[in-house]
Amino acid sequence: MKKAVTLACLVASHFLLAGCATSKGIALNRVNPTDPQPTCMMCPGTYIPLSEMELYEQKALKERLVDQQVRAVDIGKANVGIGRVHRGKLDKPSPNSVAEHDHVSEVYHVISGSATLVLGPDILNRERRPATMPTVVLQNGPGNNGSEVRDGVAYNIKAGDVVVIPAGTGHWFTKVDDHIDYLMVRIDPDKVTPTKNEAQSKEYLSKPARRGE
Q: Is residue 118 a contact partner of residue 88, using CB atoms and an 8 Å limit?
């Protein structure tokens, strides 16, 4: 009887260990179907090296570009875009330069420089952005421009600051002191914009940007 119990324990241990076995370093533990399930099953992570981000900075300065999409990743319930933005000195806002995006929320992390950014949902003189506009198609989806943000809140943003802009909220640069560079994170729950992988990024960086990109 003692030998039978020992054998049963060994067999049980074998199956328990098998559940934790690895293949090429990847754990094979099974997810309990009654537990909450990952919203992006077996999705890989995404890494963007500093060297690549610096190439976008150089391209912005050389070709006088403002907003460039570095990656756009499908994370299951949403697409997440990573952009690199450079804005030069601005003494007063350009006409109709308030921006608003219907579906895509944005997060700014300021890298260098400083500016005055006005935020608010009440946008005057809304004008629909053309559906064929490259930034609409590739970066931030449908939305509007406007002439002013009524009762907006003005923030003096600088290096290290973070700004969260929900979809539908107007954002308006009224002044850029010398320049401002920031990392852009776009949250696209309806996946209205396409993904962009490393190979597409390298292709984009290999030649001058097309007008409007």
A: no
Do residues 104 and 167 touch, judged by C-beta distance below 8 A?
A: yes
- CA atoms 79, 118, 109, 211: torsion sign: positive
d(CA 131, CA 11): 63
CA distance 105 to 116: 19
What the block records as the tokens of 168 is: 């539908």
Distance of CA 78 to the CA centre of its chain: 10
Query: Residue 131 and residue 133: Cα distance in Å, rounded?
Result: 6
Which sign does the torsion angle of CA 130, 133, 138, 144 carry?
Answer: negative
CB of 111 closer than 8 Å to CB of 159:
yes
Rounded Cα gap, residues 170 and 140, in angstroms:
13
pLDDT per residue over 87-133, tens digit each?
Answer: 999 999 999 999 999 999 999 999 999 999 999 999 999 999 999 99
- List pLDDT tens digits, range 84-94: 999 999 999 99
Rg of the chain (C-alpha set): 24
Encoded tokens for 68: 């460039």
Ranges of beta strands (E only) in 129-169 are 143-146, 148-149, 153-158, 162-165
Q: Which residues pair with 184 in a beta bridge?
A: 83, 108
